[in-house]
Predict the structure of V-type ATP synthase alpha chain.
Amino acid sequence: MPDKHRTGTVRDINGPIVTIDLPGVRSGEQVRIGEIGLVGEVISLSGQQAVVQTYEGTDGVRPGEPAMGLGWPLSVELGPGLMGGIFDGVQRPLSKIALQSGDYIARGLDVPALDRSKQWEFEPSHDLEPGQAVGPGTVLGTVQETEVVVHKVLVPPGIQGELEEVAPAGEYDIESTIAHVRDAKGTSHRLSLYHRWPVRRPRPYHQRDDGVSPLITGQRVIDTFFPQLKGGKGAVPGPFGAGKTVVQQQIARWSNADIVIYVGCGERGNELVDVLESFPKLEDPYSGRKLMERTLLVANTSNMPVVAREASVYVGLTMAEYYRDMGYDVVMLADSTSRWAEALREVSGRLGQMPVEEGYPAYLSSRLAAVYERAGRVETHGAGSGSVTLIGAVSPPGGDFSEPVTSHTKDIIETFWALSKELADARHYPSIDWVTSFSGHVHTAAEWWHEEVDRRWEQRRTEALALLARDAELSRIVNLVGPEALSDAQRWQLEGAALIKEGVLQQSALDDVDTFCSPDKQFALLDLALSIYDKGMALIEIGVPVSELADMPQLAKARRCKSMYNSDQVAEIRTFAQEVEQAFEGIRLEYAKQSVD
Ligand SMILES: Nc1ncnc2c1ncn2[C@@H]1O[C@H](COP(=O)(O)OP(=O)(O)OP(=O)(O)O)[C@@H](O)[C@H]1O
């Protein structure tokens, strides 16, 4: 233990929950437990006794060992050096830890998140003068954190006053003094390139703004059918193996956010290894450099107990808010909030609290809501608008969406991308079910699409969903009485829906051309599918048999267009649409001629 200052004694150990005697300890305070110095946090107090949840295994710790209060709540370090980092659930840098203790994290390790020795090139803001009034969000200067991220060095929340001095341009480590600010009481505050922030306290902002532009993910079923806004909150619930991780990775990789934060929260070890191995290899499609230059990962390692997952979501969110405060659009992916909720359940069970639904405590929904509440688009204190988009994967046991975590999440979020086992089994990817998914952002997104892409976007989207709903009804009839019972018009509706499903909704993450689809290409493909359907229906209405249309080679090509033409080749898709139109016109003329003959 580093210090005997304010020490107490371990009384009782119940898995990750430890009771200690420590006079003067506060709720939420960080403590170190036992000779080994395990990290933990006070979650309840009763007289001199405190109940602590530890973020590391308590094996070997015995009653009577010391416990020490650190005097501050669970906090993270915020400053240059976060980008590209891989941290554990309490923000310890995994790569450094591996150097110190090998692949398995030794317990009680105390490694700061940010590198103390690295020098950063600080460029002070040119418009700053000593004597000037500054406050939270004032940009003191910048540091080029990576090739693609300019890190704004801001006056941290809570500091307000007169600027005494700001450091000249030069190289500084994160602990060097960058500025001094004298507050109204005359106290001088020394500011450096980093500060600490308690993870459970949302970082302040000037005011909330409504989201205005969609988060473009390049995934058609998301952008075109169930859009998300920058600053929105969304969930991806899905049964085992339905594709949650792929959806999240596609968003991380392709979305037009400035910063990506991926919190691997208690998913199986091999999946986490996969994420940790795959992310550093990914190329940033916007800069051509490594995606990790604007990404950071938080990963619960397999030897951390379940309660560490609980902290990791807040750790990720606080870092997301920090970059939001610089005016960036941040997307944070939490995989998965079910595992996070299990941590709540475990702790509440060990505390003997009354379980409400399936063992979860009564505060499950309020905790979930508080987490999602930290998403949003805001007017920051000094750096313009910034946003945190929060997308949580949910892994309901047995794929049952009525279980508590999924159902409470559904009430909180605005965008719900429900993955379906049937679609995944049929290898229809992404397996986002168009019947049960929803987005509360369609009208706002429509303004963007109408302005930037095509004025018919919302109308076309509605037509496609109506056709898919009709398809579901007709498929039920076919299952009952067979396809012969359908009219030619109904069969053509099935063909039209199949074209939407295969040509628009299905999108392979593994297809080099189709893995990302620009908004223009998304609309061109949707419009192509619907025009084919509309033109075909007009022919059926004048008596052309459906078999003649269903065999047209153009239909097969329309299904493949997504992989034949990349996002820059929208003109080619439109040319093909004209060819199809001519083919239909040919049939119409021929049929009209036959009728006359
Ligand atoms: N968009 C996609 N394109 C191509 N293949 C996909 C896509 N989505 C999912 N898959 C396939 O489905 C497999 C399982 O996906 P994934 O690992 O994302 O599922 P999961 O829901 O995260 O699983 P788990 O329940 O184990 O966490 C992938 O390995 C891949 O083969």
User: Anything to note?
Assistant: The chain has three domains: 120-197, 207-452, 457-596. The chain has a mean pLDDT of 91. DSSP finds 16 helices and 26 strands in the chain.
